[in-house]
Amino acid sequence: MTDLTSNMLAESEIELKRQISRLDEANTEPFKEMLSYHMGWTGEGAGREATGKRIRPLLLLLTIASCGGDWMKAVPAAAAVELIHNFSLVHDDIQDNSLKRRGRPTVWVNWGAPLAINVGDALFALSNLSMMDLANSFPSEQVISASTALQRTCLDLTRGQYLDMSFENREDVKVDDYWAMVTGKTASLLSSSCLIGAILGNADNPTQEAYRSFGHFLGLAFQIQDDILGIWGDENVTGKSTASDLIERKKSLPVLVGLSKKGKFAEIWKNEQITIANVEEIARILAQESSYAYAHDAAKQMTDLAINSLREADPQGEAGDSLMELTDKLLRRDA
Amino acid sequence: MTDLTSNMLAESEIELKRQISRLDEANTEPFKEMLSYHMGWTGEGAGREATGKRIRPLLLLLTIASCGGDWMKAVPAAAAVELIHNFSLVHDDIQDNSLKRRGRPTVWVNWGAPLAINVGDALFALSNLSMMDLANSFPSEQVISASTALQRTCLDLTRGQYLDMSFENREDVKVDDYWAMVTGKTASLLSSSCLIGAILGNADNPTQEAYRSFGHFLGLAFQIQDDILGIWGDENVTGKSTASDLIERKKSLPVLVGLSKKGKFAEIWKNEQITIANVEEIARILAQESSYAYAHDAAKQMTDLAINSLREADPQGEAGDSLMELTDKLLRRDA
Question: Which site among B85, B118, B138, B183 would you substitute to test the A interface, given the most A Cβ atoms closer than 10 Å to its Cβ?
Fold first, then answer.
């Protein structure tokens, strides 16, 4: 990590804490603690592993700096995108009944679903307040333009989440449905993180569009990689038990491709329970039916599109180099 | 209802539908249906009873008109405050395990808690987008000022909700805690509805403050009345079974006052189950220990403060008259 990215991450963290300190009154102290725990700052296992990678703030700040803007002024926006990400994680964990997040018990496991819903809502409200704080350093028109981009993404997140949940009970999910779902659930926030950076960096419209597009394809590439790792991945890389996505019957890209072949995998998916005992064999059958190759090609295609968009955006200076490096790192994590 | 308020309500409804139509794509149609159902537009029992009274949009629009502003331009803000109200209701109903809302099954009862959480999140995002739409008709600075007021309220809502939930497991809740809770849960949104109307109506700072204060005390007075009706009210007025708040062990103002007396009511509350069989008797005991008088006096005091603030704001014209009338109607519903 360069000094620049370290500084950006450190400033984002300070700003996140400043935003959450809005809940500092004595009577909401235990409530604030729930947010601090989720952010990875307090409780058992607090620290680097528990905070997550803060990719979205980093993308936003590297983008504004790559456009020649003053990234320090955009730190509240960086906090805002990270708060939205975490709001969606807290609600996701309730919706998916997930017991662990970043290696620790989820908020709802610790405090129950009703309070966890409220924690997510507070993170959402704090994100919006962070965006409004930009008005201290940017012209109001720019703040509104950036906020509108973020709010569109928030609606996209709920669309993606709806599709994801609806997939569970549908037998007819197609590969096209998958793209709509991951566009909302994963790509939209990465995309708007870059777009907001470009807006605040005074980039012209084609450059804004190139950054937006970069974030979008980065998100899609990233998600497909995650899908691949979830079935054929290495537990040491992912921190999740290998092939857990098959056991959880997650309709990820490789599974949807496998089902579309109407072959042996589709037969097994329909009629058998997938357990720790047969999951490796089933993952092998899925790969034989060319799902692995398909997903791998799709990831490569999205990666190329992301890198082309980034080149088109033509990021400048040290931040530009860091943005290229970060992209390489994110997209080659299984290499 | 005057022609003016009818027009305002009609325009708010059109705008609410326009905002929710952002979910009009084919693959999110069933999701949009959940929002439409909650708003009272579709499903069994749809209609006037199911939409609720839309008090917040009306307060906002009457306020801007009372300041001499063009209320038609502020309709997206009116939709925004109603969307926030409904976002909080959808999440509240999950958190409180409520089976009915406005006489119909709640969203989570119909579609399950995971999807209902997502419905609330979408209403929140749509509210934020509505606020951003104001930029088509108002200077950006005003939009940011109004949005900031609304987002502060959203954080207040989560504070109030946290306090409300924490009361359930606390034996030491004081009357002061009650004020903090209802300020967040009820008064803040009524208060910001008026404040936003005044901001968009170009009112000067003291007038903005008078309208904000009016909404705040209106909210407190309204909530205390609700508490009184929840214990000693008439089912025909409230639509809820009389005294249900005691059975549900809700720590409303009369209960907290009763507990502070450490008399017979406090004894019963601690040691007995309150059921349909003994609730009338217990409500009588609570009244004898002067809780009814205390709550009634508090409601009167808050009503007076609300009306004084409104007079200070000096609302003008037909809208001003309607605002006075609406206030009278809201604050005398048990008379």
Answer: B118
